[in-house]
Amino acid sequence: MSAPDGSPVGAERSIGQLFAAATTELSALVHDEIALAKAQLRQDAKRIGAGGVLGALAAALFLFSLPMLNFALAYGIHTWTGWNLALCFLLSFLANVLVAGVLGLIAWVLTKKARKSKGPQKVAASMKETAGVLQKAKPHPRPEPRALEDRSPAAIEAVARSSS
């Protein structure tokens, strides 16, 4: 059995090995937090993109469907109800505005959610918290190793066998 750095368990690691292990773990932590920030930014970009697409769809629907839908709807209302043709055209226009308004509202909600997202701020706060914990961390005092003559010969022999 060995420690993560390859040294046998029970063997004391040097300060350099401990520092190298801590540096490696800290580097991995920073890389993971950067990856988290990128993932959150990608999610926000997708939301903004979806809101933009729906907004463009609402505008296209409003502009390009007006002539065709207005004529079809107005003549349909006129045929079914016998109302004045001008009133029927007005009702068909209001129906188009209503559909475009619903799509525009959905686009606005998605864009607002993306703006309210605190993804990058959360990552920055997490990184600051990690840095604060690391700054306050104090090494644990090691017990003084017992002198070699205090150890029993059987214990010394067992350690020698386990290290080889």
UniProtKB/TrEMBL annotation:
Transmembrane feature ranges: 48-77, 83-110
Coiled coil: none
Compositional bias annotation for Basic and acidic residues: 141-152
Region (Disordered): 118-164
Assigned keywords, A-Z: Membrane, Transmembrane, Transmembrane helix
Signal peptide extent: none
Protein name, as recorded: Phage holin family protein
